Amino acid sequence: MKFSIIKEYKFDKDKTIGYLSDFSLFQNEIDNIKLHEETITKNEISSGVDIDNFEPIVLSLYPEEYLDSQVKTFETEKLILLDGHHRWKYANKENSVNKLKCILINFQDVKIKSYLFNINIEKESFLKYLNEAGYFESNKEDFGIFFNNKKFVNNSKPSLMDLYGFKKIMQNENIISPILEDVSNSSLLIKFTALTPEDLINIDYILPPKSTWITPRL
After folding, report:
1. Residue 188 has what pLDDT?
2. Where in the chain are the domains?
3. SS3 123
4. What is the share, in percent, of the chain residues with pLDDT greater than 70?
5. Of all helices (H) and strands (E), which one includes residue 148?
6. Cα–Cα nearest to 59, from 130, 110, 135, 2
7. pTM for the full model?
8. Distance (Å, whole) CA 122 – CA 215
9. Dihedrals φ, ψ of 21, to 5°?
């Protein structure tokens, strides 16, 4: 995958430097874009939308590669999609990936937090729901759910995949719903053990929607 026009781009919120380019030279048969989250069906982009008006998607280089302001052309075989899964999916469906604009960032600048969720049932009912699913209060350093200033862990299902699989079940059953990150703390909010940037490289499965709050972002 070759990027022939690269301009420096400064993200407003955290002042991270990215590099603006486009997918005009993208080759679907050769180039590899790694995804990490499913899209939300109700948020899919409707047919007939002009891809030329899309905001850029944000992608990370792999750790062994690096961009700086001196680079004017860049070539790589693989990238990690950080922000823009719906836009990417739509462009693929329309066979128009080459119309997408993109911002490339260095792997060392990727930061991940857990997406915050509201619970949609009473607090006591939610605690009962967690216990019935095998999640109990724990201080262990395992993957877990943070709620009401406590951590809940399922000792029989200790993997990241298990945790986020349970998260997907709760989303599908409308037990929880995602919210924006910039909210005040509340006893009705939950979060999950966050992924690390290295997890984006190592996982070989697709996470449920809204599993990661990745910065920098538009």
Report:
1. 78
2. 2-109, 115-215
3. helix
4. 96
5. none
6. 110
7. 0.89
8. 32
9. -155, -155
